[in-house]
Specification:
The complex is a heterodimer of chains A (about 230) and B (about 675). Chain A has 7 helices and 5 strands. Chain A has about 230 residues and is α/β, with parallel strands linked by helices.
């Protein structure tokens, strides 16, 4: 049941590790999925965005609706296989076409994840700015064995992701949909402790910088006329 | 048309053709993996790189349209270098397990690596490993060998019409499979083996059996359905090891149905390999002369008109004409090939053939299917209908028969029985508007739809629909009867239709038909065939015949196309080619048939029906007079489909283990052992 073997072992993480059909035998796969009222409202609005006959275009938004609903209902935001079948049925497409999309994008979790999804950016700018410390903090404070793993208490799943596009405020730790910026070891530990308590600290820079403005005092444009 | 210069050779190709096609027109070989002329263009293997003048880099010729005045180079340093690089990349994750790979010797990757690749690889790291996928009982997968050309995905989606294969994951983790590990629900799955350019998809029954260069290849015709698929029988040491399709664009293109391809192991089981004679109520092994003696003893004392023959679904034309001549010499015209009870009118050839022709389906623009499931009765013809249905131009398909069938193309279920048929025949049904609006409408009438008490009325009603909805014209014949097996048209051509006033027979000669139900109690039964089925159990004398791979024989497909199969292996034991058995019997019956060679039998065939002497041609319809039968008499009874178990529909496939496993896999589990 080894699936695709890569030299780096399972550390590729994210949705990739869950793309092997053998994993479908996992007992965690529910036998039933149906959109709830909140999702149904979103689904109706999403499908309406596309012209008749092109409903299949809504597959990615609908998979997100599924993932959010699973997060609401079970505390684990992922896309079970039965839900992909429901999406396929709803959009009139072959189920395999939905499986292809869901397994292609690692933003979709095809296996259950923890309550909080810690997505550590490890691309060059974040790495230069200390993403290794952020990852270490996630492992130590979150009690996660490493990338692709979930903590024993089911609170945290850690994934290494590629560039999140927030390089100016590197390093970035994305928790579910929120960016926490300018992280270091201590701020990551504080963030994880807060999450464990059930708090959701305000996303954004952890060092109080305004959006992507330079750290500290303004050093340029000091003599703007009229200011 | 565009003028293209390929390596200095000027060719003219239609606008919109690809550079690869232009290169082929110029006689240049372009290596390729993902490109297949009967599938959509993917352009993902990059093997077909060529250089085009003024293009800054090599282009993938399969996906690049030609332009007038284009200059293409297929053997420049840039091209050679590009191909080498592509090949090196393809081989990065391909295991070098050719010595244990069943594709070895007929592998596109092997051949092209030899012809266009580098002599060594610079890749030193670990290769990836992919877990094997389950695609059903016929296909063995070794997915590590997959080079992700996606031909199988495109075949399943486009030709077979079962979008169940896909590529999941991405990048290095991309894998081809069904994701849910279910068998592909198609009757064309064997073609995946043919189109896979590497050893990722191979034949499960053929696994580790043979190398291609050890095989003797014999061209033949598949008779297990009525398509008349052109096949190549691969044998070694007197044993059929596999069957592959040959290309014939008029018939099967290059596809083949699973039953014809995989049921040949049934040729080795439950065979009749020696004559048997019933003595004191028990069958005992006998010699040929004892068997003929028993027949002669009984036939001599029987009035000619009390002798009858029944022709089976897999009988060849030579045997049929010999048997007909023998019975004629004995004074009987009581031959019957419609043992399934189909009310076929054999008085005119276009009443019982597929007149539009298989290739002609692509020209049709409306289709009415009556009481037939072409997907199970003739999967390759169904693929042709699907090809037409997805080609873009409107193609309304009306269907009368069981509701909820998946024909692999969109169809309009009109009703399940005779009431709908009568309504369309009367011209009052909503589908009549579709037919009248069409320029080349056609209908397919299933042979199964005629196997009922009001079969003649159904046939007449179908003809009436054809005649009154513009299907019968001088340049277009839209009336089609879809037969079920490859031996069902030849006996109709040869007039094997029992006279209505024939007396009850005392001697019945069963030529390969297991259906002994109509044989009267006490009659003397001669069974000539290759498999011991119900007919053999009832027989007084058993004459072991040859199966379709074991004789030089003539077959007529559902179109009425006459094709010849060749002997690939000899029949087992004392079994003989069927016409020779009948010829030998005629000698002992004192009615010696006047032919001693295959050529002489074939001359006789040509004399018996012109179709056997001339080539096949498509014909229009000039005579609208229909077959006998009252079109208004069709009853409301629902049409029942003749084939409920696609994988075990004939004596050969019923003896096959491979087909038995398919039936176990694909059919819903039977609650108890169903009665035969």
């Amino acid at each position: 049941m080894s699936g695709a073997h890569t030299p780096g072992g399972p550390s590729i993480g994210g949705g990739w590790a869950g793309t092997h059909a053998a994993d479908e035998q996992h007992p965690e796969q529910p036998t039933h999925f149906a959109f709830d009222a909140e999702s149904e409202a979103k689904v109706a609005a999403l499908i309406k965005r596309y012209p008749p006959g092109k409903q299949a275009s809504a597959v990615i938004p609908l998979l997100y609706v599924v993932q959010r609903q699973m997060g609401r209902q079970t505390g684990s935001a992922w896309v079970p296989r039965v839900a992909m079948d429901v999406v396929a049925e709803r959009l009139g497409m072959a189920p395999i076409r939905v499986y292809e999309v869901a397994t292609f994008y690692f933003m979709f979790n095809t296996r259950p994840i923890g309550r909080y999804h810690l997505q550590v950016c490890g691309t060059t700018p974040c790495w230069l700015r200390g993403s290794d410390d952020v990852a270490r903090a996630c492992r130590e404070a979150g009690h996660v064995a490493g990338y692709g793993h979930t903590s024993a208490d089911g609170m945290f799943t850690m994934t290494e992701v590629e560039c999140l596009g927030g390089c100016v405020n590197a390093p970035i730790l994305q928790v579910d949909d929120d960016y926490y910026e300018d992280m270091d070891y201590d701020s990551t530990v504080r963030l994880i402790d807060a999450l464990r308590r059930g708090d959701r600290p305000v996303p954004g820079s952890m060092i109080g910088r305004q959006t992507s403005a330079p750290i500290g005092e303004r050093t340029t444009l000091l003599d703007v006329p009229g200011e | 048309m565009a003028k293209v210069t390929v390596d200095g050779i000027e060719v003219e190709v239609p606008n919109g053709a690809s550079v690869l096609q232009a290169c082929e027109a110029a006689g240049k070989e372009i290596p390729r993996f993902c490109y297949h002329e009967r599938l959509s263009v993917a352009g993902n293997c990059r093997m077909c790189l060529v250089e085009v003048e003024k293009a800054p880099k090599p282009i993938a010729s399969c996906a690049y349209p030609v332009a007038d005045g284009m200059k293409v180079f297929t053997d420049s340093p840039m091209v050679r270098n590009g191909r080498r690089g592509v090949m090196e990349f393809l081989l990065i994750n391909h295991p070098l397990d050719c010595p244990i790979c069943d594709q070895g010797g007929e592998c596109d990757l092997q051949d092209q690596a030899m012809a266009f690749g580098h002599d060594s690889s610079r890749y030193m790291e670990e290769k990836r490993v992919v877990s094997d996928k389950y695609m059903g009982p016929l296909i063995k997968t070794i997915m590590t060998r997959c080079i992700q050309c996606t031909r199988c995905i495109r075949f399943a989606t486009e030709v077979a019409g079962v979008p169940e294969l896909g590529a999941t994951g991405r990048g290095e983790a991309m894998e081809v499979g069904t994701y849910v590990e279910r068998a592909l629900t198609t009757e064309l799955s064997g073609n995946l083996i043919d189109i896979c350019p590497v050893g990722a998809l191979t034949s499960r029954p053929y696994a580790f059996v043979s190398r291609p260069w050890e095989l003797r290849k014999t061209d033949s015709i598949d008779v297990l359905d009525a398509t008349g698929t052109n096949i190549r029988v691969d044998t070694r040491a007197g044993e059929v090891l596999r069957i592959l399709p040959r290309i014939n664009d008029d018939v099967n293109e290059e596809w083949m149905a699973d039953r014809g391809r995989f049921s040949f192991d049934g040729l080795k089981r439950r065979r009749l390999d020696r004559p048997w004679v019933r003595e004191n109520g028990r069958l005992r092994p006998a010699t040929w002369s004892e068997a003929f003696g028993a027949i002669a003893a009984r036939v001599r004392g029987t009035a000619g008109e009390r002798i009858a023959a029944r022709i089976g679904d897999l009988a060849d034309a030579e045997a049929i004409v010999a048997l007909k001549d023998l019975l004629g010499a004995l004074g009987s015209a009581n031959l019957e090939c419609r043992t399934d009870g189909a009310a076929i009118d054999a008085s005119r050839r276009d009443f019982y053939t597929f007149n539009t022709t298989i290739a002609g389906i692509e020209e049709a623009d409306a289709l009415l299917i009556i009481g037939s499931n072409p997907r199970q009765e003739a999967p390759v013809i169904n693929a042709r209908i699907r090809k037409r249905a997805i080609s873009g131009a409107p193609f309304p398909v009306g269907f009368i028969g069981p509701r909820g069938l998946d024909l692999t193309y969109r169809h309009d279920w009109l009703g399940e029985g005779g009431a709908t048929l009568r309504a369309i025949a009367a011209g009052t049904h909503r589908f009549n508007d579709e037919l009248r609006a069409a320029r080349r409408p056609m209908l397919i009438l299933g042979r199964g739809a005629l196997r009922r008490a009001d079969g003649a009325a159904v046939l007449a009603a179908a003809w009436k629909i054809a005649a009154e909805n513009g299907m019968l014209r001088e340049d277009w014949h839209g009336f089609n009867l879809l037969h079920l097996f490859g031996g069902q048209v030849a006996p109709l051509d040869l007039g094997c239709v029992a006279p209505p006033d024939a007396p009850a027979p005392e001697v019945v000669w069963l030529l390969g038909t297991g259906d002994a139900a109509e044989v009267p109690e006490g009659a003397f039964v001669i069974y000539q065939g290759h498999h011991g089925e119900a007919g053999a159990a009832r027989a007084d004398v058993i004459l072991p015949g040859a199966a379709y791979t074991e004789k030089d024989a003539t077959w007529v497909n559902t179109e009425g196309r006459v094709q010849q199969g060749r002997l690939a292996v000899f029949p087992p034991g004392e079994a003989r080619e069927d016409w020779k058995i009948i010829r030998a019997a005629s000698e002992l019956l004192g009615k010696r048939l006047p032919y001693d060679s295959l050529d002489a039998v074939r001359d006789r065939l040509a004399e018996a029906h012109p179709a056997f002497g001339s080539g096949f041609a498509r014909r229009g319809c000039t005579d609208l007079a229909g077959p006998a039968g009252d079109a208004a008499a069709a009853t409301d009874t629902a049409f029942a489909l003749p084939i409920t178990n696609y994988w075990q529909a004939d004596p050969i496939s019923r003896a096959s283990d491979t087909m038995a496993e398919c039936a176990r896999t694909y059919l819903p589990a039977a609650p108890a052992m169903a009665a035969e």
